[in-house]
Amino acid sequence: MEMPVYLFTGFLDAGKTKFIQETLEDPRFYDGERTLVILCEEGEVEYTPSKFPSDSVFFHTIENKDELTAGKMLDLQKKYRMQRVLIEYNGMWELNLLYENLPENWLIYQEMLFIDASTFFIYNANMRNLVADKLKTCETVIFNRVEKHSDLMQYHKEVRTFSRSASIIYEYKDGEIEYDEFADPLPFDIEADIIEIEDKDFAIWYRDLMEDTSKYNGKTVRFKGMVAKDNAMPPNTYAIGRHIMTCCAEDISFGALVLLYEGQEQFKTRDWVYVKAVIKIEYNEIYQSKGPVLHADSLELSLAPEQELATFY
Questions:
Q1: Is 219 in the same domain as 175?
Q2: What is the pLDDT of residues 82-96, one digit of tens each?
């Protein structure tokens, strides 16, 4: 049986506790289900159980991240016999710690990130890896304590650096709410006969391809990438991509795609090539699932990009 998990992330005093309190008071969300709230940090704002039926809402504090284990969470499930879980997560802990230790039947139904707009750029400058960690997976970002007449685009751009799909909400100091409606046009023409990806746009294209794969099925694309070849790969099969940095050196990874090329010329790992290929969404053993497979009709050696590391800036 699935255990629904509602995950609330953000740094200390970003507004998580206030939102959870209001949610538990709201009869549209809370109708008496046994609910466990797991607190991974304690801020200045405290919960007021008297404002909701506290006989079926339970609180448990996890102060040390070493306690965040599947065994511990299953013990809590046995103890409280809850029907759903709300987690107020510690902003200083990376989310992989939670994802990797959730019991198999605990499924995250919703993930919301709360940000204090007045301190966001300080955190973003000094702890960018932790900010990126939360932005990459959240479904909704709520900026609270926003000053009237603020340049909302500066917040929007930072969110879009890490996620093109997250909804963004701005809450002003007077409580007024505004929804983000900025358009995010892609820097290339996806309806062109050949989608031309400039070197500087590779990271954006790769993310869009992986987030919305189906819309690229049957499209022809042309870009520059680095070849990777392994002896275990079948003949005429390569990986092609670029090293991508999302926010800092610690998160650099090789954004790779499967490439099939029937040409006579052989390429080796770290060769830079200019490829023109049709994208087909199909099963491939390298992915061990369906994914974007590039069927290349031309593959030519080329010089490396001026900046080999692909970024979102």
A1: no
A2: 999 999 999 999 999
